[in-house]
Design brief:
109 residues; mainly beta; five-stranded antiparallel sheet; four-stranded antiparallel sheet; 0% helix; 49% strand; elongated; disordered N terminus
Amino acid sequence: MLSKTRLLLIPTFAAGFLAASPMWATTAAAVSEDCTSWSSNSGQTGNVKCDSDSAVRHHRAVVTCMNSGGAKWKITGPWRSRNHVSSATCSTTGTAGVYAISVERNYHG
């Protein structure tokens, strides 16, 4: 298998963000033993950084976004090597935020 995806919901909360929808509390959480994920940019960007797992060549953030109407979609960050951050931004205008963050891994190449 070329990649594995692990999902961890990352609740997001920012003052006034998505006023018409439910609010969530921001937490930085581990996606796995060797990867961490967090939201930034007032909950509009999802980030993933993987360390130390010698079998993982590259990783990227897979971010589920949600807008004030409750619509959800997924976006991906660029592939990054170990110890580098992959990020994906849902919105630059505050119209959508991070609902969940997962990591996709490439064990080859």
